[in-house]
Amino acid sequence: MYLQRLEIQGFKSFAKKTVFDFPKNSNFHEKAHSLTAVVGPNGSGKSNVSDAIRWVLGEQSLKLIRCKKADDVIFGGSEKRARQGFAEVVLTMNNEDGALPIDYSEVVLTRRVYRNGETEYLINQNKVRLFDLLMLLAKANFGQRSYSIVGQGMVDHIINISAFERKDFFDEATGVKQFQIKRDQAVNRLRKTRENLLETNKIIAELEPRLRLLTRQLKKLEQRKEIESALREEQKKYYSYNLKNLEKSRAEKAELLATRQALSDEWREKLNEIQFELGRLSREESRKDIFNNLQKEYNDFLGKKNEILKDLAMIKGKMSLEYLKAGKQNLSWLIDKKEETERRLSEITESLNNLVVKYKYQQNQKMEAESKLSSLINEQTVLSNNLKVAEEELLRLKSGNKENYGREAIRAVLKLRTKMSGIIGTVAEIGKTEEMYELCLGVSAGNKLLSVVVENESIAVRCINYLKENRLGTVTFLPMNKIKFNGQNGRGVLSLNGAIGYAVDLVNYDEKYKNIFDFVFGRTIVVDTIENAKAIGVGTERMVTLDGDLLEKSGAMRGGFQKKNNFWASIDDKGAVSYEEKIREITINRSRLESLEIAREKLSVEINNWRVDIQVAETKKKALENDGEVLQKESQKIALEINENKVEPKDYDRYLADLEKQKERLEKDLKNLEKELSAIRQNLDEFNLEEEKKKNQVFRLQDEMQNCQNKVNGVSGEVNELQIALAKIETKREDLEKEILTEFGQEDGGLIEEFLKVDTASVINIDSLWFEIGKLKNNLEQIGGIDPEIVDEHREVSERYEFLTGQVNDLDKGLVDLEKIVVELDEVINNQFTISFKKINEAFERYFTKIFNGGRARLELVQREKSATEEINEAVLNNLENPNLEAQEEKKQNENLVENKSVLVNTGIEIMVAPPNKKINNIAVLSGGERTMTSLALICAIIDSNPAPFVVMDEVEAALDESNSHKFSQILQELAYKSQFVIITHNRITMHVADVLYGVAMGDDGVSKTLSLNLEGAEKEATE
To answer: Fewer beta carbons within 10 Å, N or C terminal of the chain?
Structure first.
């Protein structure tokens, strides 16, 4: 395994995406790994490369990656470049040798952080936890804090830290870090298990006396059962008796209330209709303007008539004088008499016209009233018939017909379809058959045809609870996801004489309901006659004949005359009438009949009045017609006399002729005016009649409204009294139910339903029953009060005690298993650490001698000494006259714990060195250069003994002189055969041994940029 590529984007000074490619092998030595040097001036950002590698390997310490805040790793921007929103480092490693325990030939580690603080870890583009990443690296013997990444301060850090802190560094160096992580996890689980075991034992110790006490109380409670059983039986009878009486009273009041309420609704509806009609009449446009216009027009024509009459009178006077001069004195008198006759005849004609208008109006009103009366009579007949049918249905409902009760419950469920999805319908609704098979299939399925099909059992449970809450009866539900049918196939019977087919095959239904209809009809075979069914064999199969005779497979036979019922009739919410609705219907019909009877009487009186008025009008009409005939004859007679006495043409002078012409013209105009006046007068009469009709209608509606209001007030008073009475009954029932639930210690109403089913026929004296209940209660008080929940508590405590006992056994077993794991891990750690430590120690002395050209160096294991406080406490404990034996025992037990027996747990590592010609054992007195060379010798020894896949060194040789730099370079070339190296350096000697050089520089935009150089290629070009 080797480092193949490093991609940095947005990390610190690397704003742009920067890629570092690392070769597998050295350009100068084929068997050696590559050595890559990253160079550049101070502040160019080259150390950010090592920080990026450390960061992508999971480093959490901001100090080690030289940051103060988490988002400091994201490029913060400059004067010429905006800041980045995230930082990402991608490390690609070649894993063809399988050094990493993962099934990938190339492993890509990615770490990404955003400015909102969100961090992502990815392995080959799959999100993982930080723990998963660290565990994977630990198994490959390298990580972000081990010798794999040697930072600028790590050289001094190895020397300066304590021996016990240095031990953590060696855990990774010796390859036991992964086992240390597993051991720490096992130890934590072990301690947690011990704590749980201790707590469980404490709880068991607390439960034991409580369990013994509950056992004694349970035995005492059993002595009360006989008395309590008798008490409950007596209480059931007592409460059931009272409940039934209240229910009976409630039903009577409810029935009466429904009747009164229906009547009140009917009268209110009638009142609203009358008020609406009155409002409509009051909203009609006023007709006063029409009357004024007609009256004005009449007056105008009347004025014109008076002017004509005035002119005509003057002309007649002049003509009388002329007739007098001509010796025709009688002619003037005859003309006046004729005009008077014609005037009277005109008045009679006008009166006759007015009378005809009224006569027609009276005739129309009489006909309308007679039509209304006929409609009322027909409506009375229909309502009477409906009332009779409804009363018969009410008697059937009141008798408690079970079939109707069941159908009412089904209708109630089907009404829920608009509110609750999942209710499909009855079996009869979702399947249809031909009329000839309806009887036999109905008999075969029986009540199953009325079963309600639902989608699942949850819907069925909701519907059942709804029926219980509203006391609506029972319904059979068929959940589609639960109904299954596995019947035997008897197809051979179908070939016999008379067999028509399976009942289920004669029904048309959607295929998704197949299980439902298989369940409903089973393997029932339809046969034409009972004789053929007998020939097939009674008991061989379940059979039904077309006449409805049923032969069971058990041998039972049921048949005879079957009423032609429609088994397949749909039962839905349309037309479904409850008992209360039927009462309302009857009440409304009765009220309507009463109203119709009153209206009928009024119409009869009104019709008689119109008949009288019509007879009077007919008499007046005949009298006026007779008077008109007399006047007509008289006018004709006068006309003959005038003709006999008229002035001869030869006697006419010019003046008289002009007067005659003027008279004729005026008379013609007068005649036309009278026609106009007659028409206007007729319009006025018709208008007045229409207004009188409306006025009478308003008066009639006002009378009816007052009557309806009185009815509403009276019925409302009765309704209020009944509602108060019902409320009192409901209050008594609620109090009784609360008393029952309190007495019996229950919270649901199911107990009330049970009590209503109790037989109370044996209850003769309710007072004596109450006395017996009180006596039984006194006996219970003498025995003593015991919590009725003691049984549940005893069961709970017993179950908890048994459960905890089992838990203790499981914890003991788990404790043994965990201790075994810790011991095994300690053995693995000790063996591997010992072997690796020996190899590192030998390599350390070799590299130290090589770097220093002599001298001595070794690593020593030291054990942690007791602190002064611990020694004092132990001494005091040992010197006490009465030592705390419990504390001593606890100390001894802690020392014997497997997690505390490991030698390496409290082990440190001391570095013992002596440079040539110096007697020094303490590294603290070494010079700066000596300390650096010692650290480098130790790091090189670790790399040599337990080589990491790759090693990153950040200016570790900065403190070395030229001679020692040459030595360090030679050592790096040696170690390159075992590990791949990435060196961040300023040292030219180190650069000289590198295979690839990456130069890092920073532009004026504050962004680090790179330039790569392959030294082998450069060398070839230089040679050429």
So the answer is: C
